[in-house]
């Protein structure tokens, strides 16, 4: 129940669609004022009053539907017709027909965009004042109607504009996450090329020398082969260092980075760890797991919160869980290149990895690796 209250009308939720025609249509109830007057015999002739009420309600609903699908038709066709019916009804029948002016104002605030809205809102306020003076209404009643008309136009316009800005921010957040991943992959490809390009060229040259020298000078060929072995070991060390840098800067740095990027993405982060020191290889592996898990949360989950927990329990256990929906994007359910690569490295050190949706809602990445003797 508390979770439902927290998620209700959450503008940052991927599932929240924002204001729409259905939500705004509720204000058609303002036709209840004219209906009340008709039922109590205050509006005559009835053959004109009832069609006016039905026309006002129908045009209001049609204007709202078109406002969210075809703004041109809404502003050029249905909204002017609605204005004509409601203003004529309020002027001709008076009384509670003034409520139709508020309904018209809601339609204006929902339909009209940009600089045209304030002049139309003030014009409708002026019409309201004229109609109230015409029927001899008091100052309090006139001000109440004018205030209702004005706020009925401005508030929907502000809400719709804010939701448009929020949607734009959501799109920008997703694009930035994708761009960050692409930039990291590009950096890795550049680093790997820089590390291996020269080394492999040297190894090819020395291998050719071995092939030429082997038939005529075995000792020289053996020397060249030894050089190839040494260069190969050095290249392996450099590649490991490069991959470690790609995976992350270690667990502590990746946890701090995760806290920052999750906050920037609008995701509440909860990080808990009781493990202070780790061996270098384990530190690099778990740091990469944190980076991969957090990247998936930002790119695929649409989550509002993410928990990262590292604990001892028959080894070292890292869990990254969120409250997002796997259907919010093309979310990998235990697959994907990043998770596959992580699984291979976890398995290589004798560990286990699980990745998949949680019951109901959410996603869990769990990495368990053996704890080495010098981990404290």
Model description:
The protein has helices at 2-7, 21-24, 32-39, 46-67, 71-93, 99-111, 117-134, 139-213, 218-247, 251-264, 280-301, 337-348; strands at residues 268-273, 305-312, 316-322, 352-357, 363-369. A hairpin with a 5-residue loop joins strand 4 and strand 5 (363-369). The chain has a five-stranded mixed β-sheet, covered by helices on one side. Residues 328-335 have low confidence and may be disordered. The chain contains twelve helices and five strands. The chain is an alpha+beta fold and 376 residues long. It starts with a helix and ends in a 7-residue tail after the last strand.
List the helices and strands and how they pair.
Layout: H1 2-7, H2 21-24, H3 32-39, H4 46-67, H5 71-93, H6 99-111, H7 117-134, H8 139-213, H9 218-247, H10 251-264, E1 268-273, H11 280-301, E2 305-312, E3 316-322, H12 337-348, E4 352-357, E5 363-369
Parallel strand pairs: 1-2
Antiparallel strand pairs: 2-3, 3-5, 4-5
Strand order of the largest sheet: 1-2-3-5-4
Number of contiguous helices: 12
What is the chain-wise order of helices and strands?
HHHHHHHHHHEHEEHEE
Poorly predicted spans: 328-335
Distance between the first and last residues' Cα:
41 Å
Helix amount, in percent? 55-70%
The fraction of residues assigned to DSSP E strands is: 5-15%
Give the mean pLDDT: 81
**What structural class is derived from the secondary structure elements?**
alpha+beta
Tell how many strands the DSSP assignment holds.
5
Largest sheet: 5 strands, mixed
Shape type: elongated
Radius of gyration: 34 Å
């Amino acid at each position: 129940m508390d979770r439902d209250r927290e998620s209700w009308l959450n503008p940052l939720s991927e599932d929240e669609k924002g204001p729409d025609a259905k939500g705004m249509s509720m204000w058609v109830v303002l036709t209840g004022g004219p209906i009340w007057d008709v039922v109590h015999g205050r509006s005559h002739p009835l053959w004109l009053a009832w069609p006016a009420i039905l026309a006002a309600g129908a045009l209001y609903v049609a204007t709202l539907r078109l406002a969210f699908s075809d703004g041109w038709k809404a502003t050029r066709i249905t909204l002017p017709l609605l204005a004509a019916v409601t203003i004529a009804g309020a002027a001709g029948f008076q009384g509670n027909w003034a409520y139709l002016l508020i309904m018209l104002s809601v339609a204006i605030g929902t339909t009209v965009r940009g600089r045209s809205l304030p002049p139309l809102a003030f014009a409708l306020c002026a019409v309201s004042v004229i109609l109230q003076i015409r029927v001899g209404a008091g100052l309090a009643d006139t001000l109440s109607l004018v205030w209702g008309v004005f706020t009925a136009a401005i508030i929907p316009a502000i809400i719709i504009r804010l939701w448009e800005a929020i949607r734009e921010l959501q799109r920008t957040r997703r694009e930035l996450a994708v761009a960050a991943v692409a930039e990291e992959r590009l950096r890795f490809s550049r680093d790997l090329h820089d590390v291996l390009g020269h080394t492999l060229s040297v190894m090819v040259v020395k291998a050719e020398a071995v092939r030429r020298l082997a038939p005529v000078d075995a000792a020289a060929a053996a020397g060249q082969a030894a050089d190839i072995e040494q260069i190969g070991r050095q290249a392996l060390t450099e590649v490991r260092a490069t991959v470690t840098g790609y995976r992350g800067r270690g667990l502590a740095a990746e946890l701090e980075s995760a806290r920052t990027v999750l906050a920037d993405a609008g995701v509440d982060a909860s990080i808990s760890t009781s493990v202070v020191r780790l061996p270098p290889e384990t530190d690099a592996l778990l740091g990469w797991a944190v980076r991969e898990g957090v990247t998936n949360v930002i790119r695929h989950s649409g989550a509002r919160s993410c928990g990262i927990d590292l604990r001892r329990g028959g080894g070292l256990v890292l869990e990254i869980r969120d409250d997002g929906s796997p259907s919010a994007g093309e979310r990998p359910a235990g697959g994907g290149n990043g998770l596959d690569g992580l699984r291979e490295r976890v398995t290589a050190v004798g560990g286990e990895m699980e990745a998949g949706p949680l019951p109901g809602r959410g996603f869990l990445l769990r990495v368990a690796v053996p704890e080495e003797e010098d981990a404290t």
